Amino acid sequence: MRMSWSQVSARRLARHGLAAPAKDATPADMVTAMCGAHAQVMSAAELSIGLRLDGVTRTGVREALWGERTLVKTHGPRGTVHLLPARDLPMWVGALSTLPIVNSVAAQDVRMTAAQTDQVVEAIREVLTGAALTIDELSDAVVAATGPWAGDLVMPAFQTMWPRWRQAMATAAHRGAFVFGPAKGRKVTYTAPPAGRAKPVNDCLVELVNAYLRAYGPATPEQFAKWIGAPVKWAAAGFAAAEPEQVLFEGVPAWVAAGDTEVPDEPPRGVRLLPYFDAYVVAGRPRELLYPGPAAARALNGGQAGNFPVLLVDGQVAGVWHQRRSGRRLAVTVESLRELTPAQLRELDEQVALTGQILEGEPQLTLGPITVGGHA
C-alpha cells in the first residue's frame, strides 16, 4: 500500500486529537494515544493534553496525575520526564527495562559499573516502598544503603555537583523502581510506582512498538530508535517481534501496525498551537516534511524538535510562538512563517482562547517576531 504525506499527516492529527478534540476521553486515554506526554515543562504537558480533549483544563490534568492517579510522572522515552497512563506503566517498564545501558559520556572515574547501577536501582526501590522522599532524603537513603562511593559529588549539573548515584535515575525509573510523587512545598518527591501486574518483557516491547506505530506510523526501526533513545539493533528486534506491515510512505519503505492501514479521506486541515516538546512534533518524522523549508531553520534546534512551541498549519510547522504569564494574564506572541488567510487568523484567535481556557488564564494575542530562544 502507498501512503502520501497528506494522508499520513491527516491520520496522525486525527489520532492525536488535533484534527478535533476527543470527546468522552480522559487524560489517560489521550496520553495512551500520544504514546506519552513530555513533562519536563509541566505547564507544557498540561497544555499538550488539554488541547486534545474537550473541556479539560490544567486542573483536570493535575487531578488525573495527583488525585485520581490515572497518570504517573516518570522517566520515559530518551530518559526524559514524561506523563504516562498508570494502566500502561507495566508495559513501559517491561519494554524500557530491556534497554541496554549506554556508556556514560562522563569521565571514567565518574562512571558507575553495571553492578553499582544494579545496587542503586534496588536501593531506590527499597527505600521508596511506602515512602515519598525529596531528592535530598532519597540521596541520603541511597548512600546509606550502598556506600560512600554513591555520594561522591562528581557530576556537574546546573552550576553545582550531583552525587554519583544520580546517573542511575532514568535506569531506575525504566526498571520500575520509582515514579514522581506529590510535591512537598516547592520540592519534588519520589515514591514507589502504583501496583501493577508485570508482563513478559518481549510482550511489552511488542506492545510498545505497536503503540508507537499507531501514533506515529508509518515509521522505521531507525526512527523508533531515535524516539525511544535506543540502539537501532534493539529497535529492529522489537519491530521483528511485532511483525508490522510494510507500506510505501512517499515511495520509501516504512511500517505500520499489522492491518492498521486506514487513512482519512480528507487532507490535513487546521491551525494549532503546540507547546514545548509536544509529542506530535518530537516523534513526527520525516522532519523535512513536518518542518518544510524555513520552518526547519526557525523551529528546530540543531535538528532537535520541541525546543520551540510551534504554530501548526494544515499538519505542518508554519511558525513559532511564546506565552508569558503574569498572574492570570497570558501574553501570547505568534510568529508565522507564512501569510495566514482570514479564516486561519480566526482559527488562530480560537486557539489562543483555548490556550487561555486550558491554562486558566486571560490570553492576549500579538502577531510578530519571537525574541526568546529555544528551551534547553
Describe the structure.
- With 376 residues, this protein is α+β, with helices and mostly antiparallel strands.
- The protein has two domains: 176 residues, no CATH class; 97 residues, Aminopeptidase.
- It is 39% helix and 21% strand.
- The protein has 15 helices and 16 strands.
- It has a five-stranded mixed beta sheet. Strands 1-10-11 form a three-stranded mixed beta sheet. It has a three-stranded antiparallel beta sheet with strand order 2-4-3.
- Strand 13 and strand 14 form a beta hairpin.
- Helix 3 packs across helix 4, helix 5 packs across helix 9 and helix 9 packs across helix 11.
- The radius of gyration is 21 Å and the shape is globular.
- The two termini are 40 Å apart.
